[in-house]
Amino acid sequence: SSDIWPSFAETLFILEQLQSPEDVAYQLKKLYRELGIEDQLYFDSISQSSEGFISVLCSDSNSPRDYFAWPLAAEYSNYAHGYFGAPWTWSSSQCKFWKPAKNRYAGPFNQTTNHPILVTSTLFDPATPYHGAEIVSKLMPNSRLVTVEGWGHTTPFISQCADAITANYLLTGILPDEKNTVCQANITPFEYSSVQPIVNVDENIKKRQKLIQELNKSKSIK
To answer: What is this structure's pTM?
Structure first.
């Protein structure tokens, strides 16, 4: 979420300065609100997102049977991509003990689908790199690619142009005419002073709720 990078930078600064727990708590609450997850932190139920991530990753993937494959791959990833490479490599280490699901789909991925596919990606995605979106779009003969010239993981709510195309596709199935449509991001990280609010959190929450309502309405009509 590149729109909250200024607040995230402030949070890191506060932690580095060893400020009081009260100051850290205040800053974290501000950060959670800008992310739109403040209400999700106080549910009675325990989050299982980590378990869900691993279950999907291991069920869909072929993984080494030799545990020593991970430290070797982690070292190579660090060499190729910096010190963020190793954590992502080790995140799949549990898969050594988990066989892929028998009913998973393992390809081919270059077929003409019954319904055309829309692929969206930011140009600078730190988790799922842009070149992956390019490959998927090229593999699918009747697909379209939307490229957001911006930062952060996934495209929703960071580009009005991309949001309009995505919403129209989900509601009507209509794709843009261009094979690769380029959209601009709404904001540039650190473009404004951290004192000046750059994110209207309530407005973003309303947009999410409105889109979900429209999608549910369309589903019930069908």
So the answer is: 0.71
